[in-house]
Design goal:
The complex is a heterodimer. Chain A folds into four domains: about 1-165; about 165-345, no CATH class; about 520-620; about 695-825, Glutaredoxin. Helices cover about 55% and strands about 15% of the residues of chain A. The longest helix of chain A is centred in the middle third of the chain and has 32 residues, at about 445-475. The radius of gyration of chain A is 33 Å and the shape is elongated. The N and C termini of chain A lie far apart (about 85 Å). The termini of chain B are far apart. Chain B is elongated. In chain B, a hairpin with a 5-residue loop joins strand 6 and strand 7 (about 140-145). Chain B has helices spanning about 1-30, 35-45, 85-90, 90-100, and strands at about 30-35, 50-60, 65, 70-75, 105-110, 125-130, 140-145. Chain B has two domains: about 1-30; about 30-145, Beta Barrel (OB fold (Dihydrolipoamide Acetyltransferase, E2P)), CATH 2.40.50.140. In chain B, strands 2-4-5-7-6 form a five-stranded mixed barrel. The chains are: A alpha+beta, B alpha+beta. The interface between A and B is large, with 66 and 55 residues. Strand 1 of chain A pairs antiparallel with strand 1 of chain B, so a sheet runs across the interface.
Chain lengths: ~800, ~160
């Protein structure tokens, strides 16, 4: 039922969008406000209609309506609720519907609630926005209808691709779509400004929308990076995958546009730049959708076997030809550029910023389509891998960060280093201090030190700019400096939001330099309980455990991590094998620290779990990237903060923003990420065994230190544990054989009572000393994870055996003999 | 004013020229030669020791995996590289299926040091980045696999190895 209504709604929506565009044109032609009002109503109705459509699809998912093909392909009765919701955008049809709905909603808001400056542009913007809606609706209705039904009704859906079963998937695609769709608004208003020849004021009128799109894309990209890091299990966060690039390209041009808009508002020109950037941002959105849906590019995101490529290619052609024709016909209306400015001035730096974002866009674009380009040019296909992208974009990013650092020091238009002299020592501190500090911590790769010098300079200048602003204000107004900073952040949101964004960029640059220039990745096979040195860590594989969950089997591997100063943490990387189909999903475990993340992936195992293979990745400085990303987003949010006087509203918005930020912080560092916290770790074989003190059943006390010079066996057991009591006769036999040869046995009864222990000792004829582990002190000291566990310590006090599970008399004798031989030497 | 405008243009051109240089030089050194199995055979000695990316269909019965090394070898079969040719032959899944059944097509042995990716199965499309050795084997650094699985209609699985 929902499907039929949904289909009819979509069929109704297409003519409605065309009507809205037509009515608006008619209203402009006939100068008739009634037609304009009708166009507005149609635009609003379209938003409502598609909103209902989205709700209907949601209903179909929630009610497990597998007669709808899209639902049957992307859901099943067993997946949790949040995944059923996020399944709406898990495939092409649903994504396109979401796209259409957002497009209609944004169009209604942008044309219905314009600010004063945007108002004259609304009639034409209504035309362009509705034409864009009509294009996406055509594609959806004709080729990708989410409400298409199946002839047979399935009892169970196919389920959701395991890779997409991650909470990040709730936010990542919608955030990106807000960015993509949001870009249509500045584009439509830019064209409207061209048509109506009101070119001076359009950037100021559209600032909010640019920021909405920019923030949406930024959040989407960062979430995508974090999702790749947490889920894809290859240890990285950015692979220059063509689809990642498709999201990055419009973000580059939009960032450039935001900078160009500042210049235009300050009456420093850049009108042509801003027009071109608005047009290309939208074209790049279309290119991104084309690239992912044409099957042209192999990628994790590509929607295979899609025939929408032709539509998007034609749309790109129409938009480019139409926009340029309009631009050329209005060339005389473009205001002349600003007066004289030196290259080494604020104007000059903004100009270079725009140039660099443009060259970056072109570089990444060329890299994404390199196989096609080289095939046409040389008839051979070359492909750009991460090395290509790093080499080509690295210097450009470096230069951008340098400009970001130098710009605040320069005069507005003339070549004056206005504030340089006072700040010279600060600059030197940043440029030299950052690489020196890094070198002190062992980061000595030359290119990274050069990069850190630039980053240090930019960081110092940005922070100084924030601090100086606060101090100046505090002097002028007499407020406390911290209050002055708070007021500045509130009153000059865009400027100080911008500085925060810059600070975020600087932090992110540190993370990118660390991960790209200090890569560390090995694949190693581990035997159970055998320590393996990897980098500055010693890892001990402790075994596997399995769980059966709904439609998959989870295998956890436990690995103890030791650093230079002993036990750090236990890690539990996970591998899920899905019972239907052969798909598997690895969930890495990671231990974050300021210096680096230790990132562990379970690759496989054999011999019943005796042997397991892990991929170990060490990501240097990667947390700077994530912290930087959050600072970056916070800055963007600050710049976007609307001018509302209501105290309540501001408070609510602040609480929402802070809780979102808090949620992100928790998701990155608060969640365990496969860490087993609170453990103490077993002592390592070959290292001194921790001293322990045990009160025996007869009331006497024994300590390991007092037994130095003897070989000591410690057996953790309990009278209630079947496999423990099973090995007691073997232990007793070995004890009897070695008692006279300088060997001591100690039984440590774990979570047991005196009566039960004494009864068990009588029953099995055990005569070696046994004590109760009061308060589990000894168990904690030896980091046992279960019982029985057996440790053997040689005459020097070093551990020579750590064994999990029951042990045989032969195995014990071998180790004890070896330990005795060593003490005889 | 005139003088400043010229400096702007020159500075812009310098940046553009530097980027063009970076792109051209990186394409020469850091880019990968993208080849089909047929082309590897045709070019033979010319590509030995070069960075190449070869795509082909995986032959299931040739997969040999040593989990302790870890080390995998398998053979890929030629499939057309051109997406139009793939469409004309009935889509990727069909092309991959046909390739594995056709004994006359050129083949290439791949050696990969690493854990066997789960998507490495019969009729998977392998995109292998690596280097050709003297014996005509492809020593892989990276494996990218697309599977004609039931998820294919939406999202082909991918592994980076």
């Amino acid at each position: 039922m929902a499907a039929e209504i949904g289909r009819s709604l979509l069929w109704l929506a297409l003519p409605l969008s065309l009507y809205a565009a037509f009515a608006s044109v008619w209203g402009i032609r006939a100068r008739d406000a009634r037609w304009a009002a009708s166009a507005q109503r149609a635009t609003n109705a379209l938003a409502v209609l598609l909103g209902v459509g989205l709700l209907l699809l949601l209903v179909a998912f929630l009610s497990d309506d597998f007669s709808v093909r899209y639902v049957a392909q992307h859901s099943s009765t067993v997946i949790p609720l949040y995944l059923k919701i996020s399944a709406i955008w898990a495939g092409q049809e649903g994504s396109l519907l979401l796209w259409c709905a957002l497009q209609a909603f944004f169009a209604a808001v942008a044309t219905g609630l314009p600010n004063e400056k945007a108002r004259p542009l609304v009639p034409w913007a209504t035309v362009f926005l509705n034409l864009i809606s009509a294009f996406f609706l055509t594609v959806t209705v004709l080729h990708s209808n989410p409400f298409a039904t199946l002839d047979v009704v399935l009892a169970e859906g196919q389920g959701l691709n395991p890779l997409l079963r991650h909470p990040g998937m709730i936010f990542h695609p919608p955030a990106l779509y807000i960015g993509y769709v949001g870009l249509a608004v500045p584009f439509a208003f830019a064209l409207a400004a061209l048509v109506t020849r009101r070119i001076e004021g359009w950037t100021r009128a559209l600032h909010t929308w640019m920021l909405v799109a920019w923030l949406g894309l930024g959040i989407g990209l960062l979430l995508g990076m974090r999702w790749a890091y947490d889920v894809l299990g290859w240890g990285g966060y950015w692979g220059w995958d063509p689809v990642e690039n498709a999201g990055l390209l419009p973000w580059f041009t939009l960032t450039a546009l935001l900078h160009g808009a500042v210049m235009q508002e300050e009456r420093r020109g850049f009108h042509l730049w801003n027009m071109l950037l608005a047009i290309f941002s939208f074209v790049l959105v279309l290119f991104g959708t084309f690239a992912t849906r044409s099957g042209m590019i192999a990628s994790v995101h590509a929607y295979a076997q899609s025939n929408l490529g032709g539509y998007f290619l034609s749309a790109i052609g129409v938009v480019l030809v139409g926009s340029f024709a309009l631009l050329i016909s209005r060339r005389k209306a473009l205001p002349s550029e600003a007066g004289p400015a030196s290259l080494f001035s604020r104007d000059g730096m903004f100009y270079l910023t725009l140039i660099l974002f443009s060259t970056l866009t072109v570089s990444v674009f060329i890299g994404s389509v390199l196989p096609t380009i080289t095939e046409v040019l040389t008839s051979r296909r070359f492909e750009a891998g991460p090395a290509w992208f790093d080499r080509v974009t690295g210097p450009q990013f470096g230069l951008l960060v340098l400009i970001l650092g130098v710009c605040p020091l320069l005069g507005r238009a003339a070549a004056t280093l206005v504030r340089l002299r006072r700040r010279l020592w600060l600059l030197a501190l940043g440029a030299v201090g950052a690489p020196l500090a890094a070198a002190a911590f062992g980061f000595r790769e030359p290119v990274s030190l050069l990069g850190l010098g630039v980053v240090g300079l930019a960081g110092v200048v940005t922070v100084a700019e924030l601090v100086e602003g606060a101090i100046t204000r505090s002097r002028r107004t007499g407020e406390a400096p911290i209050n002055a900073l708070w007021r500045l952040l509130r009153l000059q949101r865009r400027t100080y939001g911008g500085y925060l964004v810059h600070a975020g960029v600087v932090l992110m640059a540190v993370g990118i330099l660390g991960t790209r220039l200090y890569p560390f990745e090995v694949e190693r096979t581990f035997r159970m309980l055998e320590p393996v040195d990897v980098g500055r860590y010693t890892l001990v594989y402790e075994g596997l455990r399995q769980e059966f969950v709904d439609d998959h089997v989870r295998t956890y591997a436990t690995v103890s991590v030791y650093g230079e100063r002993g036990y750090l943490v236990g890690l539990e990387p996970r591998l899920d094998r899905y019972t239907s189909g052969s798909q598997t999903l690895t969930t890495p475990a990671l231990r974050p620290s300021i210096r680096e993340d230790l990132y562990l992936i379970l690759s496989g195992w054999s011999d019943n779990g005796e042997i397991a293979t892990f991929k170990v990745v060490i990501n240097a400085l990667v947390n700077f990237l994530w912290v930087g990303g959050l600072v970056f987003l916070a800055g963007g949010a600050l710049a976007l903060w609307p001018h509302v006087r209501s105290r309540t509203w501001n408070l609510v918005a602040l609480v929402v923003a802070l809780s979102l930020l808090g949620g992100a912080v928790w998701a990155m560092w608060g969640a365990t990420h496969g860490m087993i916290l609170g453990g103490t770790g077993r002592p390592l074989v070959g290292e001194p065994a921790p001293d322990m003190r045990l009160t025996l059943l007869d009331g006497s006390t024994v300590s390991l230190a007092s037994l130095k010079g003897q070989v000591v066996l410690i057996n953790f057991w309990a009278s209630w544990c079947p496999s423990c009591v099973e090995e007691m006769p073997a232990l007793q036999a070995v004890w009897e054989a070695y008692e006279e040869r300088g060997v001591t046995f100690l039984g440590v009864a774990h979570r047991d009572t005196q009566d039960a222990v004494e009864a068990a000792l009588r029953q099995y004829g055990t005569t070696y000393p046994v004590g109760l582990d009061a308060g589990e002190r000894v168990s904690t000291l030896y980091g046992i994870t279960g019982i029985p566990e057996t440790f053997i310590i040689d005459a020097r006090g070093d551990l020579t055996l750590a064994h999990i599970g029951p042990i045989t008399a032969e195995a014990l004798s071998t180790v004890i003999d070896a330990a005795l031989d060593m003490s005889d030497q | 004013m005139k003088g400043h405008r010229t400096t702007f243009v020159i500075a812009g051109l310098l940046v553009v020229a530097a980027v063009v240089y970076l792109i051209v030089s990186s394409t020469g050194s850091a880019a990968q030669f993208f080849l089909t199995v047929q082309e590897v055979h045709d070019l033979a000695d010319e590509v030995v020791g070069r960075n190449v990316t070869v795509s082909g269909a995986v032959l299931g019965e040739t997969i040999v995996y040593d989990p302790l090394a870890p080390h995998v070898t398998f053979t890929i079969v030629h499939v057309p590289g051109d997406s139009q040719a793939v469409e004309a032959a009935g889509g990727l899944a069909q092309v991959l299926h046909d390739a594995t059944l056709d004994p006359t097509r050129p083949r290439l042995e791949v050696v990969y040091r690493g854990v066997k990716p789960d998507l490495l199965t019969n009729e998977a499309q392998a995109i292998v980045r690596g280097r050709l050795d003297e014996e005509g084997r492809l020593i892989a650094d990276d494996l990218l696999l697309k599977c004609p699985s039931r998820y294919e209609e939406e999202i082909p699985g991918q592994v980076e190895g």
